[in-house]
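sry for the spam today, last one i promise. struct tokens for design, 394 residues
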């Protein structure tokens, strides 16, 4: 601390240190003065003048402390870049280094959220409180809040690397609200009767793809990226390593996580769908499933919904759900039948089964009347014999 807590202190026989806040950064600079009582008082007055200049916006670091290494970081040209200008530059640089789907997510957050709200702020003036106050006005889910902060935090990390700002104001901090109760229809699987009705309303490639989706749990983006070379007929497995999203513009990309790259066991209904599909596309091209109208690979779930999914729901008289519900249907069927949650998690591309338990917990069978009898039969019999032996010897 400085003299009497005033931000001024003697640091040697020939110099005095002044401490002050500038653009959110604690700055310490030395003045070459012998630390006498008179000079310490002068240093306090100099500090007060600096803080006044800062408050009215006239402080020039390089003029006040021309020999300071910190002055370059506060040069006027570096201080004039706005959040808008930086994020625009940052976004353009990111496009070359991230997956198309990731970049598309960044682009939407930057152009639709961050720039309209924070764009006019100077980068060096961006404070955590301003971000928090803005986030507090948004009527969005905690997941969206997390995505916004993750994008901005990543950009500000790069800004610190450029020495555009001293510290990332979002480092080690996350804003969230009390989570709202989950919607009851988040997981809304098709019943066996609904599955049969929808499959009966489809034919050819559309029916094969629907049946395969229901019995593998693949995401729509993984389904349309599947090639015949990914099918291991001997092991009866499908190798999932790519996904195709709308943002990819017709180009398949590696799945985002290591767990997403997996071998999926092909159960009998899935194999039957593949064998029927083999007669239609195996010799035509690389992709397993094609848009029947174009005889080309599906480009994402948008065309699937419009040309195949919605008409099938209407024809079958089944209440509408999005295509992703085939994945939920697979999970609920496997768990209801008593398949191990960890096996289901691996089939679906999750790194562990905690998400399975959280999302699909009500489909995991609860303990029945016979629960514990297997352990009892194995371990308790020996214990009973030992107790009987001890009693007989007494």
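last one done:
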């Amino acid at each position: 601390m400085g003299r009497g807590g005033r931000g001024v202190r003697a640091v040697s026989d020939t110099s005095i240190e002044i401490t002050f806040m500038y653009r959110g950064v604690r700055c310490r600079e030395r003045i070459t003065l012998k630390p006498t009582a008179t000079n310490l008082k002068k240093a306090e007055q100099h500090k007060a003048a600096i803080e006044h200049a800062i408050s009215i916006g006239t402080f020039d670091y390089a003029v006040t402390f021309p020999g300071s290494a910190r002055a370059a970081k506060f040069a006027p040209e570096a201080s004039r870049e706005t959040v808008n200008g930086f994020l625009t530059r940052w976004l353009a640089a990111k496009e070359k280094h991230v997956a198309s789907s990731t970049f598309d997510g960044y682009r939407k957050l930057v152009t639709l959220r961050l720039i309209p709200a924070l764009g006019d702020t100077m980068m060096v003036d961006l404070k955590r409180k301003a971000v928090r106050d803005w986030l507090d006005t948004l009527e969005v889910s905690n997941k969206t809040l997390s995505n916004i902060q993750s994008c901005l935090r990543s950009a500000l990390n790069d800004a610190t690397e450029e020495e555009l700002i001293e510290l990332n104001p979002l480092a080690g901090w996350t804003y969230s609200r009390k989570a709202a109760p989950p919607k009851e229809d988040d997981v809304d699987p098709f019943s066996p009767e609904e599955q049969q009705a929808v499959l009966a309303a489809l034919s050819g490639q559309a029916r094969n793809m629907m049946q395969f989706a229901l019995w593998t749990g693949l995401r729509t983006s993984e389904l349309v990226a599947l090639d015949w070379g990914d099918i291991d007929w001997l092991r009866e497995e499908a190798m999932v390593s790519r996904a195709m999203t709308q943002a990819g513009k017709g180009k398949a990309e590696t799945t985002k996580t290591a767990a997403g790259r997996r071998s999926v066991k092909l159960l009998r209904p899935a194999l039957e769908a593949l064998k029927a599909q083999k007669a239609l596309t195996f010799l035509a091209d690389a992709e397993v499933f094609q848009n029947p109208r174009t005889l080309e690979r599906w480009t994402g779930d948008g065309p699937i919904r419009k040309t195949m999914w919605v008409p099938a729901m209407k024809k079958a008289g089944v209440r509408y759900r999005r295509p992703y519900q085939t994945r939920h249907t697979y999970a609920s069927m496997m768990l209801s039948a008593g398949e191990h949650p960890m096996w289901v998690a691996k089939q679906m591309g999750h790194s562990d089964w905690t998400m399975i338990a959280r999302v699909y917990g009500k489909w995991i069978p609860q303990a029945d009347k016979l629960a514990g009898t297997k352990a009892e039969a194995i371990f308790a019999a020996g214990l009973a014999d030992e107790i009987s032996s001890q009693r007989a010897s007494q």
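The chain has three domains: 3-71, 83-161, 192-360. ok im logging off now
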